[in-house]
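Revision sheet: C-alpha coordinates.
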Amino acid sequence: MTTAILVFTFFLISSYCVLILRWNKAWNQIPVFKSDETHAPIKLSVIIAVRNEAPVIVNLLNSLLQQEYPKHLYEIIISDDHSGDNTIKITKDFFLKYQVDNGIVIEAKPGESSSKKEAISRAIEIAKGELIITTDADCIHASEWLKSIASYFNLHKPAMICGPVLMKGDETFIQQFQTLDYTSLQASGAASLFLNKPLLCSGANLTFTKHAFYDVNGFEDNLNIASGDDTFLMMKMHKKFPGKIHFLKSEQSIVHTSVSTTLKEFLRQRIRWVSKTKHYDNNYIKAIGGFIFLVNVFPFVLLLMGICKANLYYLLPVYLLVKTIADYFFLSNAGRFFHIRLYKLRFIASGIIYPFYMLALLAGFLRGSYQWKQRQHRI
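Predicted:
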Protein backbone atom coordinates (compact mmCIF):
# COMPACT_ATOMS: atom_id res chain seq x y z
CA MET A 1 0.00 0.00 0.00
CA THR A 2 2.76 2.43 0.97
CA THR A 3 4.69 1.65 -2.22
CA ALA A 4 1.60 2.18 -4.35
CA ILE A 5 0.99 5.59 -2.77
CA LEU A 6 4.60 6.61 -3.34
CA VAL A 7 4.56 5.48 -6.97
CA PHE A 8 1.25 7.18 -7.74
CA THR A 9 2.32 10.42 -6.04
CA PHE A 10 5.57 10.47 -7.98
CA PHE A 11 3.75 9.70 -11.24
CA LEU A 12 1.14 12.40 -10.65
CA ILE A 13 3.48 15.25 -9.73
CA SER A 14 6.09 14.34 -12.35
CA SER A 15 3.40 14.22 -15.07
CA TYR A 16 2.20 17.62 -13.92
CA CYS A 17 5.71 19.05 -14.10
CA VAL A 18 6.14 17.65 -17.61
CA LEU A 19 2.86 19.29 -18.68
CA ILE A 20 3.88 22.64 -17.14
CA LEU A 21 7.31 22.50 -18.79
CA ARG A 22 5.66 21.72 -22.12
CA TRP A 23 3.29 24.64 -21.76
CA ASN A 24 6.12 26.92 -20.68
CA LYS A 25 8.18 25.97 -23.73
CA ALA A 26 5.19 26.53 -26.02
CA TRP A 27 4.47 29.90 -24.41
CA ASN A 28 8.06 30.98 -25.06
CA GLN A 29 7.83 29.80 -28.67
CA ILE A 30 4.80 31.98 -29.46
CA PRO A 31 6.26 34.94 -31.38
CA VAL A 32 5.70 38.35 -29.80
CA PHE A 33 3.88 40.44 -32.39
CA LYS A 34 4.13 44.20 -32.86
CA SER A 35 1.95 45.85 -35.46
CA ASP A 36 3.42 48.21 -37.98
CA GLU A 37 1.97 51.52 -39.07
CA THR A 38 0.62 50.17 -42.34
CA HIS A 39 -2.55 48.17 -42.72
CA ALA A 40 -4.90 47.13 -45.46
CA PRO A 41 -8.31 48.84 -45.34
CA ILE A 42 -10.11 46.06 -43.51
CA LYS A 43 -13.49 46.75 -41.91
CA LEU A 44 -13.92 45.70 -38.27
CA SER A 45 -17.09 45.19 -36.26
CA VAL A 46 -16.60 45.42 -32.49
CA ILE A 47 -19.50 43.70 -30.73
CA ILE A 48 -20.39 43.97 -27.06
CA ALA A 49 -23.35 42.10 -25.60
CA VAL A 50 -24.52 44.05 -22.56
CA ARG A 51 -26.75 43.30 -19.60
CA ASN A 52 -27.00 45.78 -16.71
CA GLU A 53 -23.64 47.41 -17.42
CA ALA A 54 -24.52 51.02 -16.49
CA PRO A 55 -21.59 51.44 -14.05
CA VAL A 56 -18.92 50.49 -16.60
CA ILE A 57 -20.27 51.14 -20.09
CA VAL A 58 -18.88 54.69 -20.42
CA ASN A 59 -15.32 53.55 -19.63
CA LEU A 60 -15.62 50.91 -22.35
CA LEU A 61 -16.96 53.37 -24.93
CA ASN A 62 -14.24 55.91 -24.16
CA SER A 63 -11.52 53.30 -24.73
CA LEU A 64 -13.12 52.26 -28.03
CA LEU A 65 -13.28 55.84 -29.28
CA GLN A 66 -9.59 56.34 -28.57
CA GLN A 67 -8.46 53.59 -30.91
CA GLU A 68 -5.62 54.40 -33.31
CA TYR A 69 -7.57 52.96 -36.19
CA PRO A 70 -9.48 54.91 -38.86
CA LYS A 71 -13.00 55.59 -37.58
CA HIS A 72 -14.54 54.77 -40.95
CA LEU A 73 -13.00 51.28 -40.81
CA TYR A 74 -14.63 50.08 -37.60
CA GLU A 75 -18.06 50.10 -36.03
CA ILE A 76 -19.13 49.66 -32.42
CA ILE A 77 -22.23 47.52 -31.96
CA ILE A 78 -23.83 47.45 -28.51
CA SER A 79 -26.32 44.60 -28.39
CA ASP A 80 -28.65 44.55 -25.40
CA ASP A 81 -29.36 41.31 -23.56
CA HIS A 82 -32.53 42.50 -21.82
CA SER A 83 -30.90 44.92 -19.39
CA GLY A 84 -32.97 46.05 -16.44
CA ASP A 85 -31.05 49.28 -15.89
CA ASN A 86 -30.29 52.30 -18.09
CA THR A 87 -27.32 50.81 -19.95
CA ILE A 88 -28.87 51.46 -23.35
CA LYS A 89 -29.92 55.03 -22.52
CA ILE A 90 -26.39 55.82 -21.33
CA THR A 91 -24.98 54.35 -24.55
CA LYS A 92 -27.34 56.30 -26.80
CA ASP A 93 -26.64 59.52 -24.92
CA PHE A 94 -22.91 58.90 -25.24
CA PHE A 95 -23.12 58.29 -28.99
CA LEU A 96 -25.22 61.42 -29.41
CA LYS A 97 -23.01 63.62 -27.23
CA TYR A 98 -19.78 62.66 -28.96
CA GLN A 99 -21.35 62.28 -32.42
CA VAL A 100 -20.25 58.66 -32.75
CA ASP A 101 -21.24 57.94 -36.34
CA ASN A 102 -19.79 54.42 -36.14
CA GLY A 103 -21.86 53.46 -33.08
CA ILE A 104 -24.89 51.18 -33.31
CA VAL A 105 -27.32 50.13 -30.58
CA ILE A 106 -29.47 47.01 -30.85
CA GLU A 107 -32.26 47.01 -28.29
CA ALA A 108 -33.70 43.74 -27.06
CA LYS A 109 -37.34 43.29 -27.97
CA PRO A 110 -39.99 41.82 -25.65
CA GLY A 111 -40.35 38.10 -26.24
CA GLU A 112 -36.96 37.86 -27.92
CA SER A 113 -34.61 35.07 -26.83
CA SER A 114 -32.56 36.16 -23.84
CA SER A 115 -28.88 35.16 -23.73
CA LYS A 116 -25.46 36.59 -24.45
CA LYS A 117 -25.06 34.33 -27.49
CA GLU A 118 -28.36 35.52 -28.93
CA ALA A 119 -27.33 39.16 -28.42
CA ILE A 120 -24.01 38.55 -30.18
CA SER A 121 -25.72 36.67 -33.02
CA ARG A 122 -28.14 39.54 -33.61
CA ALA A 123 -25.21 41.94 -33.82
CA ILE A 124 -23.30 39.73 -36.25
CA GLU A 125 -26.33 39.64 -38.55
CA ILE A 126 -26.09 43.39 -39.17
CA ALA A 127 -22.30 43.71 -38.85
CA LYS A 128 -20.59 45.19 -41.91
CA GLY A 129 -17.07 44.18 -40.91
CA GLU A 130 -15.08 41.36 -42.43
CA LEU A 131 -13.71 40.73 -38.95
CA ILE A 132 -15.95 40.32 -35.90
CA ILE A 133 -14.32 41.32 -32.62
CA THR A 134 -16.06 40.55 -29.34
CA THR A 135 -15.26 42.06 -25.98
CA ASP A 136 -17.03 42.68 -22.68
CA ALA A 137 -18.52 45.82 -21.19
CA ASP A 138 -16.22 45.78 -18.16
CA CYS A 139 -13.08 45.89 -20.32
CA ILE A 140 -10.64 48.67 -21.16
CA HIS A 141 -8.58 48.56 -24.35
CA ALA A 142 -5.20 49.97 -25.28
CA SER A 143 -5.29 52.54 -28.07
CA GLU A 144 -3.47 50.15 -30.42
CA TRP A 145 -5.83 47.23 -29.79
CA LEU A 146 -7.71 47.29 -33.09
CA LYS A 147 -4.62 48.23 -35.07
CA SER A 148 -2.71 45.22 -33.74
CA ILE A 149 -5.58 42.84 -34.55
CA ALA A 150 -6.00 44.16 -38.09
CA SER A 151 -2.26 44.11 -38.70
CA TYR A 152 -1.96 40.51 -37.46
CA PHE A 153 -4.90 39.36 -39.57
CA ASN A 154 -3.51 40.98 -42.69
CA LEU A 155 -0.23 39.15 -42.17
CA HIS A 156 -1.48 35.67 -41.20
CA LYS A 157 -5.15 35.45 -42.32
CA PRO A 158 -6.36 33.14 -39.51
CA ALA A 159 -10.00 32.14 -39.07
CA MET A 160 -9.89 33.14 -35.41
CA ILE A 161 -7.57 35.23 -33.23
CA CYS A 162 -7.57 34.67 -29.47
CA GLY A 163 -6.25 37.77 -27.72
CA PRO A 164 -4.70 38.23 -24.26
CA VAL A 165 -6.78 39.43 -21.33
CA LEU A 166 -5.37 40.78 -18.08
CA MET A 167 -7.61 40.54 -15.04
CA LYS A 168 -6.27 42.84 -12.38
CA GLY A 169 -7.41 44.81 -9.34
CA ASP A 170 -5.91 46.15 -6.14
CA GLU A 171 -2.96 44.36 -4.58
CA THR A 172 -5.05 42.64 -1.88
CA PHE A 173 -4.52 38.92 -1.45
CA ILE A 174 -7.88 37.77 -2.80
CA GLN A 175 -7.60 40.03 -5.82
CA GLN A 176 -4.08 38.91 -6.61
CA PHE A 177 -5.29 35.32 -6.23
CA GLN A 178 -7.82 36.02 -9.00
CA THR A 179 -5.13 37.64 -11.15
CA LEU A 180 -2.83 34.62 -10.82
CA ASP A 181 -5.65 32.16 -11.43
CA TYR A 182 -6.76 33.97 -14.59
CA THR A 183 -3.21 34.44 -15.85
CA SER A 184 -2.62 30.71 -15.52
CA LEU A 185 -5.71 30.12 -17.67
CA GLN A 186 -4.53 32.65 -20.24
CA ALA A 187 -1.00 31.23 -20.48
CA SER A 188 -2.07 27.58 -20.58
CA GLY A 189 -4.76 28.41 -23.15
CA ALA A 190 -2.26 30.22 -25.37
CA ALA A 191 0.35 27.47 -25.03
CA SER A 192 -2.12 24.68 -25.81
CA LEU A 193 -3.36 26.64 -28.80
CA PHE A 194 0.20 26.95 -30.09
CA LEU A 195 0.49 23.16 -29.70
CA ASN A 196 -2.67 22.85 -31.84
CA LYS A 197 -4.59 21.38 -28.90
CA PRO A 198 -6.81 24.33 -27.88
CA LEU A 199 -8.29 24.30 -24.39
CA LEU A 200 -9.90 27.68 -23.86
CA CYS A 201 -10.06 31.32 -24.89
CA SER A 202 -11.75 34.50 -23.72
CA GLY A 203 -14.67 36.28 -25.36
CA ALA A 204 -13.32 39.50 -23.86
CA ASN A 205 -10.76 39.55 -26.67
CA LEU A 206 -11.84 37.30 -29.49
CA THR A 207 -11.68 37.91 -33.24
CA PHE A 208 -13.02 35.80 -36.09
CA THR A 209 -14.13 36.30 -39.66
CA LYS A 210 -17.84 36.66 -40.28
CA HIS A 211 -17.52 34.04 -43.00
CA ALA A 212 -15.98 31.52 -40.56
CA PHE A 213 -18.72 32.18 -37.99
CA TYR A 214 -21.43 31.20 -40.42
CA ASP A 215 -19.38 28.32 -41.80
CA VAL A 216 -19.56 26.63 -38.38
CA ASN A 217 -23.21 27.65 -37.90
CA GLY A 218 -22.35 30.15 -35.19
CA PHE A 219 -23.61 29.24 -31.73
CA GLU A 220 -25.98 26.58 -33.02
CA ASP A 221 -25.98 23.43 -30.83
CA ASN A 222 -24.99 25.31 -27.66
CA LEU A 223 -27.45 28.21 -27.46
CA ASN A 224 -29.07 26.59 -24.43
CA ILE A 225 -25.78 26.68 -22.49
CA ALA A 226 -25.42 29.97 -20.60
CA SER A 227 -21.62 30.09 -20.74
CA GLY A 228 -19.15 29.24 -23.50
CA ASP A 229 -19.81 31.82 -26.21
CA ASP A 230 -16.03 31.82 -26.65
CA THR A 231 -14.67 28.29 -26.06
CA PHE A 232 -17.45 26.38 -27.86
CA LEU A 233 -17.01 28.61 -30.90
CA MET A 234 -13.25 28.12 -30.79
CA MET A 235 -13.61 24.33 -30.67
CA LYS A 236 -16.01 24.35 -33.63
CA MET A 237 -13.63 26.51 -35.65
CA HIS A 238 -10.69 24.31 -34.71
CA LYS A 239 -12.50 21.33 -36.23
CA LYS A 240 -13.46 23.26 -39.35
CA PHE A 241 -10.21 25.21 -39.78
CA PRO A 242 -7.40 23.22 -38.12
CA GLY A 243 -4.26 25.27 -37.63
CA LYS A 244 -6.10 28.53 -38.37
CA ILE A 245 -6.79 29.50 -34.75
CA HIS A 246 -4.00 31.77 -33.47
CA PHE A 247 -3.07 33.46 -30.21
CA LEU A 248 -2.04 37.09 -30.62
CA LYS A 249 0.85 37.55 -28.20
CA SER A 250 1.13 41.31 -28.30
CA GLU A 251 1.20 43.86 -25.49
CA GLN A 252 -0.65 46.21 -27.83
CA SER A 253 -3.60 43.83 -27.89
CA ILE A 254 -3.95 43.17 -24.15
CA VAL A 255 -7.48 43.83 -22.91
CA HIS A 256 -7.82 44.85 -19.26
CA THR A 257 -10.68 43.72 -17.08
CA SER A 258 -11.30 43.99 -13.35
CA VAL A 259 -11.36 41.21 -10.79
CA SER A 260 -14.56 40.38 -8.95
CA THR A 261 -15.12 42.67 -5.99
CA THR A 262 -16.47 40.00 -3.62
CA LEU A 263 -15.62 36.38 -2.91
CA LYS A 264 -19.19 35.32 -3.71
CA GLU A 265 -19.09 37.04 -7.11
CA PHE A 266 -15.69 35.51 -7.83
CA LEU A 267 -16.87 31.98 -7.08
CA ARG A 268 -20.07 32.47 -9.09
CA GLN A 269 -18.02 33.61 -12.06
CA ARG A 270 -15.69 30.61 -11.89
CA ILE A 271 -18.58 28.17 -11.38
CA ARG A 272 -20.18 29.65 -14.50
CA TRP A 273 -16.98 28.93 -16.42
CA VAL A 274 -16.72 25.40 -15.02
CA SER A 275 -20.38 24.67 -15.80
CA LYS A 276 -19.74 24.40 -19.53
CA THR A 277 -17.24 21.55 -19.17
CA LYS A 278 -19.97 18.91 -18.92
CA HIS A 279 -21.06 19.86 -22.44
CA TYR A 280 -17.65 19.47 -24.08
CA ASP A 281 -17.41 16.73 -26.69
CA ASN A 282 -13.61 17.00 -26.76
CA ASN A 283 -12.01 14.20 -24.76
CA TYR A 284 -8.63 15.94 -24.64
CA ILE A 285 -10.09 18.98 -22.87
CA LYS A 286 -11.96 16.74 -20.44
CA ALA A 287 -8.81 14.72 -19.74
CA ILE A 288 -6.66 17.80 -19.10
CA GLY A 289 -9.36 19.37 -16.94
CA GLY A 290 -9.76 16.18 -14.91
CA PHE A 291 -5.99 15.83 -14.53
CA ILE A 292 -5.53 19.41 -13.32
CA PHE A 293 -8.39 18.95 -10.85
CA LEU A 294 -6.85 15.74 -9.51
CA VAL A 295 -3.43 17.37 -9.12
CA ASN A 296 -4.94 20.22 -7.12
CA VAL A 297 -7.10 18.16 -4.76
CA PHE A 298 -4.58 15.33 -4.23
CA PRO A 299 -3.04 17.18 -1.24
CA PHE A 300 -6.16 16.20 0.74
CA VAL A 301 -5.35 12.54 0.03
CA LEU A 302 -1.75 13.06 1.12
CA LEU A 303 -2.89 14.82 4.29
CA LEU A 304 -5.10 11.85 5.14
CA MET A 305 -2.25 9.44 4.38
CA GLY A 306 0.09 11.44 6.59
CA ILE A 307 -2.38 11.23 9.47
CA CYS A 308 -3.03 7.51 9.01
CA LYS A 309 0.55 6.49 8.25
CA ALA A 310 3.16 8.41 10.18
CA ASN A 311 5.94 7.31 7.82
CA LEU A 312 4.24 9.23 4.97
CA TYR A 313 4.04 12.59 6.75
CA TYR A 314 6.70 14.08 4.45
CA LEU A 315 4.75 13.46 1.21
CA LEU A 316 2.41 16.43 1.50
CA PRO A 317 5.06 19.16 2.01
CA VAL A 318 7.28 17.66 -0.71
CA TYR A 319 4.36 17.45 -3.13
CA LEU A 320 3.30 21.04 -2.45
CA LEU A 321 6.89 22.28 -2.75
CA VAL A 322 7.43 20.66 -6.15
CA LYS A 323 4.06 21.87 -7.45
CA THR A 324 4.64 25.41 -6.17
CA ILE A 325 8.04 25.58 -7.86
CA ALA A 326 6.57 24.38 -11.17
CA ASP A 327 3.67 26.83 -10.97
CA TYR A 328 5.91 29.73 -10.01
CA PHE A 329 8.28 28.98 -12.88
CA PHE A 330 5.43 29.04 -15.41
CA LEU A 331 3.48 31.98 -13.99
CA SER A 332 6.51 34.19 -13.44
CA ASN A 333 7.35 33.65 -17.10
CA ALA A 334 3.84 34.51 -18.28
CA GLY A 335 3.67 37.32 -15.73
CA ARG A 336 6.53 39.15 -17.41
CA PHE A 337 4.42 39.52 -20.55
CA PHE A 338 1.42 40.78 -18.58
CA HIS A 339 3.60 42.91 -16.27
CA ILE A 340 2.34 41.11 -13.18
CA ARG A 341 4.37 41.16 -9.99
CA LEU A 342 4.43 37.89 -8.07
CA TYR A 343 4.74 38.15 -4.29
CA LYS A 344 6.47 34.97 -3.15
CA LEU A 345 4.75 34.60 0.23
CA ARG A 346 1.33 35.30 -1.27
CA PHE A 347 2.07 32.86 -4.07
CA ILE A 348 2.87 30.13 -1.54
CA ALA A 349 -0.30 30.98 0.38
CA SER A 350 -2.30 30.79 -2.86
CA GLY A 351 -0.90 27.31 -3.48
CA ILE A 352 -2.08 26.18 -0.05
CA ILE A 353 -5.54 27.67 -0.56
CA TYR A 354 -5.96 26.36 -4.13
CA PRO A 355 -7.12 22.83 -3.18
CA PHE A 356 -9.93 24.36 -1.09
CA TYR A 357 -10.80 26.64 -4.01
CA MET A 358 -11.08 23.65 -6.34
CA LEU A 359 -13.37 21.86 -3.89
CA ALA A 360 -15.54 24.98 -3.68
CA LEU A 361 -15.88 24.95 -7.47
CA LEU A 362 -16.77 21.25 -7.41
CA ALA A 363 -19.42 21.88 -4.74
CA GLY A 364 -20.89 24.70 -6.81
CA PHE A 365 -20.90 22.48 -9.89
CA LEU A 366 -22.60 19.60 -8.08
CA ARG A 367 -25.20 21.98 -6.71
CA GLY A 368 -26.59 22.10 -10.25
CA SER A 369 -27.28 25.81 -10.62
CA TYR A 370 -25.73 29.25 -10.18
CA GLN A 371 -26.76 32.89 -10.38
CA TRP A 372 -25.22 35.34 -12.85
CA LYS A 373 -26.39 38.75 -14.10
CA GLN A 374 -29.61 38.50 -12.09
CA ARG A 375 -30.45 35.18 -13.73
CA GLN A 376 -30.58 31.68 -12.31
CA HIS A 377 -28.90 29.13 -14.56
CA ARG A 378 -28.96 25.36 -14.44
CA ILE A 379 -25.73 23.47 -15.03
